[in-house]
């Protein structure tokens, strides 16, 4: 097993993707600190890992505060003697369009996703640097953070911010031998279960059946377990040379996302005045403006679901 003797923290790992990550890390030999806001859910996750022969303990707390971050690191050290891996997965959703989004909607999502990632990584980095043996930071992003999505101002901001922090941490932690990467998962979750477009895939997953090839191959949409292998790889010694990257994974597809780079560069002596922009912007940039959001191909006929009756 590739992670024998390693110790990992996985936030938001009571169920879903987080549990899949924790379980795979344990299968690869790591001892795992499980985290969830619900005591019974956390206990069930620990029991499922132990039933497969793994080692796990639970910390029941909401991610976001420094106190929770310190408790997670302390649990790893107290129960398993060290820390090697942190996976920041915890998150919440408060979806609504901009003009209806409340301060609380915004602050709650930013607090868990963005601040929670920051506080947990900060505490982990302190411990990893003290140990002096390197380490692995793996932060969970989203296609929404990369491309935007209708009704998710708060979530898009948080997930884009996480990738920005990862790039910075890769620079700051390199000398200590600590890698920092972002994973962009595409998988069947409670959120995608409500989207009619994914109904055939979600139904197949719920029945324990293989998802149709259209979803797995064409869309790169799969199960939680399809994402877990990348998490374990990035946590291993085999990925020591991978840092500062955003990697997408889902179904049969693995992607390396680019960093933002200029698409077109134009120069004008004396600078770009309003008049110059009005005259030349379309000529210089009009054909290169970037798209936003994600677009999906039409479902094959055999995967379409009849529209609900009124």
Automatic annotation (TrEMBL):
Q: What is this protein called?
A: SDR family oxidoreductase
Give a single Pfam family match: adh_short_C2
Stored PROSITE patterns: ADH_SHORT
Q: Where is the Ketoreductase domain?
A: 6-194
Tell me the InterPro entries matching this sequence.
Answer: KR_dom, NAD(P)-bd_dom_sf, Peroxisomal_Beta-Oxidation, Sc_DH/Rdtase_CS, SDR_fam
Keywords from UniProt, A to Z, are: Oxidoreductase
Q: What PANTHER family does this protein map onto?
A: DEHYDROGENASES, SHORT CHAIN (PTHR45024), SCP2 DOMAIN-CONTAINING PROTEIN (PTHR45024:SF2)
Span-the-membrane segments of this chain are none
Organism placement in taxonomy: Bacteria, Bacillati, Actinomycetota, Actinomycetes, Micrococcales
Q: SMART domains from the entry?
A: PKS_KR
Which GO MF terms are attached to this record? oxidoreductase activity
Q: Which organism is it from?
A: Agromyces albus
State the family it belongs to. Belongs to the short-chain dehydrogenases/reductases (SDR) family.
